[in-house]
Amino acid sequence: MGTAEKPDSDGQRIVCPGCLLAAPESSIRILPYFDDQVNGYVVLYRCEQCWLPYLEKTRARITTTGDWAEVASLIAFFEHHGVFQLEFRRGDPLPVVRALLGRMIDLVGAGAIRLSARSSEPANEAEANASAMKENEKLAEAAYDAMYQSSFPTAKDCFDDARSYFAKAIEIAKRAGLEDEVVRLTARRDHIVSVYNTQFRGVR
């Protein structure tokens, strides 16, 4: 008679996309990683053997970027996991916020900040839509703020980023049937377009 296999004492197991080995959920590292296709930071799952090089890539990228929208994307990633940076919220300069993000990445590496797989999973489609809409709105507002700190042609790039993120947020709101949000976001986008046209267009 065969011997019954002992249940995994660590509970659920997750396949690491890096090495394709199943590891206990408790040992899986949740990391921020920049995805060029979505132009922002997304959740990356890696096991204890695979995670460190990916975290180092994230640190190298965020500590050298001059893109406020990219910084805001990483801020939004951390906030989604319940980790907040007050310096960003009070409008500190980019170098300050960027340096502190580098330290936050170091804390993730040291295990002082441990991100949870559960917190990255929206409870339902409505929550997922609301989260995506709000994240794009945050990125749009961050790009708009950066527009005022930039000179031509960087200000134009920030404006284009803000308009693009608002377009994404509006499209998500439309798909979710959030008519009040569509009206609000459209009005905000139009205001920013008006500001750019009156204060920045043609400035060299």
Describe this structure in words.
The chain is mainly α and 204 residues long. The chain folds into two domains: 13-114, no CATH class; 124-199. It has seven helices and four strands, in the order ββββααααααα. α1 runs antiparallel to α4. The longest helix has 24 residues, at 125-148. The chain is globular and about 55 Å long. The protein starts with 12 loop residues before the first strand and ends in a 5-residue tail after the last helix.
Strand content range? 5-15%
What's the total number of strands? 4
Sheet having the most strands: 2 strands, antiparallel
Structural class: mainly alpha
What average pLDDT do the residues reach? 82
Helix content: 55-70%
Tally the helices.
7
**Element-level helix/strand string:** EEEEHHHHHHH
Q: Order of strands across the biggest sheet?
A: 1-2
The stretches of 5 or more residues where confidence is low (pLDDT under 50) are 1-9
Total number of distinct structural domains: 2
Radius of gyration over all CA atoms, rounded: 20 Å
Shape: globular
Terminus-to-terminus distance: 83 Å
Topology:
Elements: E1 13-15, E2 22-24, E3 29-35, E4 40-46, H1 51-62, H2 68-80, H3 86-89, H4 94-110, H5 125-148, H6 154-175, H7 179-199
Antiparallel strand pairs: 1-2, 3-4
Helix pairs in contact: 1-4, 2-4, 2-5, 5-6, 6-7
